[in-house]
Amino acid sequence: LAAHLPEVRMRPLEATYLAWLDASAYGHDDAAAVALERGRVQVSPGESYAPGTPGHVRLNIATSPDRLTQIVERLAKAWR
């Protein structure tokens, strides 16, 4: 994340494979919709889990390191 999305903040993982990302610094209230439309990455909108969190998403990281790198690169293109 630091290399491709330096403004994204990730909460520490709590024994889970779902990462909570704060991408609000990139200015998209519905970061999940932008990720899907522009980056072709399906993430879950943060608002579904914690109302009042625009720009937040949940990302499933239970995949290979190579695929996760591709996902982060696509998110970077989508959100910038």
Question: Which features would summarize this protein structure in a list?
Answer:
80 residues; alpha+beta; 4-stranded antiparallel beta sheet; 4 strands; 30% helix
Short description:
The chain has helices spanning 31-39, 65-79; strands at 9-10, 18-22, 44-45, 56-60. It is α+β, with helices and mostly antiparallel strands and 80 residues long. α1 (31-39) packs across α2 (65-79).
Describe, in plain words, how this protein is organized in 3D.
With 80 residues, this protein is an alpha+beta fold. The protein is 30% helix and 18% strand. The chain has helices at residues 31-39, 65-79, and strands spanning 9-10, 18-22, 44-45, 56-60. A four-stranded antiparallel sheet has the order 1-2-4-3, with helices on one face. A hairpin with a 7-residue loop joins strand 1 and strand 2. Helix 1 (31-39) packs across helix 2 (65-79). The two termini are 13 Å apart. 25% of the residues are buried.
